[in-house]
Write a structure and sequence with these properties.
Two copies of one chain form a homodimer. By secondary structure, chain A is of the alpha/beta class. The first copy, chain A, is built from eleven helices and 20 strands.
Amino acid sequence: MTCIVQKYGGSSVADVDKLRKIARLIGEVKRQMIDVAVVVSAMGKTTDNLLSMARDFSPKPPRREMDMLLSTGERITMSLLCMAMHEIGIDAVSLTGSQAGIITNDRHNDAQVIEVRPFRVQDEMAKGKVVIIGGFQGVSYKRDITTLGRGGSDTTAVALAAALDAERCEIYSDVDGVYSADPAVVADARHLSEVSYPEMQEMSTAGAKVLNAQAVQFAKEKNIAIYARSSFQPGRETIIRRLSPGTIIGVQAVVREERIERIRLSGSDALERFQQAVSYLESEQVPVKEVHVTQIADNGDHSKASFVVSAGHIYGWEQTKDEMKEKVGPDITFDSDLATVSLIGEGLNRNNQTLLETINLLKEHDIIVSGITTTSFRISLLVPQNRIDQSVQLCHARWVMNS
Amino acid sequence: MTCIVQKYGGSSVADVDKLRKIARLIGEVKRQMIDVAVVVSAMGKTTDNLLSMARDFSPKPPRREMDMLLSTGERITMSLLCMAMHEIGIDAVSLTGSQAGIITNDRHNDAQVIEVRPFRVQDEMAKGKVVIIGGFQGVSYKRDITTLGRGGSDTTAVALAAALDAERCEIYSDVDGVYSADPAVVADARHLSEVSYPEMQEMSTAGAKVLNAQAVQFAKEKNIAIYARSSFQPGRETIIRRLSPGTIIGVQAVVREERIERIRLSGSDALERFQQAVSYLESEQVPVKEVHVTQIADNGDHSKASFVVSAGHIYGWEQTKDEMKEKVGPDITFDSDLATVSLIGEGLNRNNQTLLETINLLKEHDIIVSGITTTSFRISLLVPQNRIDQSVQLCHARWVMNS
């Protein structure tokens, strides 16, 4: 029997009416004799409410306890959706991440899925049931409840689709797929009908919220096609899948990530202090990105190290910064209020033309570029947080609409 | 090292301030080098809110899904309490019922604890941590999340105290122990400093809300003393423990249970239909009480059967009644809007004096007694729901204040 995995995000399950609608949509698929596993997020503002409860107690609560707290959100959604399905005569059963066999490492708040043992999902499916799974959560090999970080329900869905050998993985949200830029910022953003895995990975890494980067990586490894769709407005969709190399060339999309902070260290012991800083952040489970280290052997005074942190996603960041300062000493600089604008597309690094023209474009508009990183599929530029929307608009007009 | 188990009820953990106070109280105990396991209920109105969400979907949702939904309430409390403890420098870890080894049968919504495997609680205690456990929940041998029914957090606490061989089990709520009647109904109700296990069991069975009957049964079997105390007003307490027989004689307390419904069957096949009704209710996991069957062999027309259901605690009762009617046929009578007033005390059945005088007392006030049950420790009378408070007051004045 054909098997598909569907995932419904927080805005798709925000209230009673929406959950009822989702139940009917799932029922239609099930009646076509298709096995369905459904991954759900927490309803609307549930996660925000839980976070604000935690903040009442502590600026930096223990991460294990945050996971215990936050994982309840998806459990509420999944049991209510099951009830809605029973009401329309579809047999359904809810499973927690742990029950569904989502095994992770013990990196609380940002755990990685290391294995999926979907035996119970398969058992319940074999009994003819729709299986509703709480997204965003798993269980560590230490038998603690973990969460997978921002957008983690996508990862649950794709990882399950891979483990179940599903035909496809459908990701439902309030947008009908992936655009060349956020339509809220760029009015004439283009809808993309197909995106390759590496491009989608780069887009997610660079701040696009449609899909989680780890989810895309899973999909790529297992060659699972992801269909990004709107829950309630059938029509357009974006398919993320393997594309022949060279199918699409040039800048496909412009994405942004807000609330970026850069940390800089200098002086003859910059490398040692960089190691201290990063190992402290590792102990706090804060991921670092875009590391640059320059070590000048014969003149240590010119040695420097820098890296970037997505400050907007780190709970208790201000306190973490203070503690890092104590650990590494005073010669540390924080460049706050930054954001990144990223151009995404294959072949961007074949020559430097795109990079040079982009720097000039931003310069013409007095936007200070304070950092640059490039990969095969991406050019990212650090700009002031308060100029980010304008930067996206300028780059989109220059590279996407002009192509 | 001495080990104690504490349990804090919903009103003791209702908000941020109260959780902070509880954290400090636990901290004081821990600093005396006492191992503490803390069982918590859901915060204030959480369970009611979750129930009302479920009602939005279904008058009678699947019980398994109700358990999945309701068990999130205690998980929120326990993770927040851990955070509050960390803030005051006490190392604490939260465990779900499942992680704490509370193994139950699969009777969802009203599961029985069949085994406690507290290895993980002991491990964490050995590391010097306060262990915070979600009450009211367990895991079935089928690996499904179960809940223990009304007041189930008491059962969690006592069962854990037994498994941990704890010195005592302290049950904290907003009242400072057990009274001879509900002080909200009887202004001069007496505080009881000691209650025996069987009396307390009868009181709980007959509707007293201070302690859950299954919890008392566990405590009796394992000889665990229960200290019922007020969370925020230290002072008086009630100790529930083994008392020498004959220590206390006469009516100790008058308790009530509201929203009782009696089901009556008559006719020559009353016994068969009674079996059908009860086995249907068993499949719906509705407990029945006070069964009376009269089978007249040579004149079946006079055969009758009746039993009583605590309708106030059964989710989806109206629909269950309709389905029972369909199964058993039309010759079934429901006596609704009843309540029971119960006299509790040792030796009540040594003669019939107490029973006869009580019937007369209620009769004098035109309160219709529509049923009577007696055990060694209890006399229960079915009265109209709208006369229950007056019945409690009359019985308390006659038997408790007069003794």
